[in-house]
Amino acid sequence: MTPLPTQPISPLDGRYRAAVAELGETLSEAGLNKARVHVEVEWLVHLTEHSLLGGSPIDADQVAALRAWASDFGQAEIDELAETERTTQHDVKAVEYLVRARLEKQGLGHLAELTHVCCTSEDINNLSYALTVKQAIADVWRPRFERVIAELARQAEQYRELPMMSRTHGQPATPTTLGKELAVFVHRLERQLNQIDDIEYLGKFSGATGTFAAHLAADPDTDWAQVSQEFVEGLGLDWNPLTTQIESHDWQAELYTRIAHANRILHNLATDVWSYISIGYFRQIPVAGATGSSTMPHKVNPIRFENAEANLELSNAILDSLAATLVTSRWQRDLTDSSAQRNIGVGLGHSVLALDNILKGLGQIDAAPEVLAADLDANWEVLGEAIQTVIRAEVTAGRSSISDPYAALKELTRGRRIGQADLVEFVEGLEIGDAAKQRLLALTPATYIGDAVRLVDYLQR
Asked: Which residues carry out catalysis?
């Protein structure tokens, strides 16, 4: 049997590659190495700009050329690093040698010893991960999340006045509007987004055990903590002053936990919309040329929401694992985080894929007002809540002497289908004030929606 050509194992790198390819710019091995090169170059420039450890300022054109090389990191550097790592068996050491070689090529070989000076590998790695994750969230995950929120908000406004039967415990309950129910998801997702935006992307740069020991041995007169803070913050990160060899990864655990929470809300959205489709509240818009079933040509399946469910669950399996694993490191360092962090892109990739599917799915559905109206008209018993509540108010106000209004309505409605005529007859026979009676007689399941329409306005605040 002829073996297949080398194939990707993960569907993110195969079937769904196009949907998540942007993440490869930052959360691939190459993206990580590009960030490592950037950090190494910026540390060297920082040392020379401040004349530290024997360095002196580099000509501005040379600095620009060095930074341009780091920014243009591409296939040539990827190949060179791979070749070097085969010898070093150490990824960050290979990056150091790559930068040294570039310095020689630019005529800056006299500064080669400043490459990676006073650094442990984790000084480079933690900053590189913080930079790449921050960029991936800002450039790839967040825009998709915002687009889902925006589409939900648009539909919440579109359907704000469309009455809908609620289902509590799967049974007919006090009506609402379709728009208000979508607005609930918008509100939940926006709250999570605000919390995600508040995450600190922390970085450390303090040597082998977080003590600046090598720094002070080489130059005891410099405030290395201050130098470290300026360097980390200059990269656009928040400085962590108290660490072991590693940055403690608490910010990562916080970020992945919050994204996982957002994923769970999205999962709830996907299952709710799927269920609304199944009872006809939403119609699916057929996509030209698409096949719903290999054998049943009539079918239009809610595959976007099903795909999203699966990918959200996969995303959370990884993000939950990362959040649990990364906060623990034995004593001053162990290497469990190194293997775990290489899967950040996988966790976020499944979330990105789910967001794309949810957005496409939302764009392929329309509400079915006639179905919603028919369902409301078939469930007049839901007005039992309104009637017994009005009776209670009338009794309290001294306009009625009815005892146990709840029991009276329970006897009339529980487990039974009753129609408008049954309720009209019941209300007309009630001992309550005329104004209250007229309000109840005018009420229908479609108008018993409380303040649902106005509640959508809270999304504008």
From this structure: 169, 293
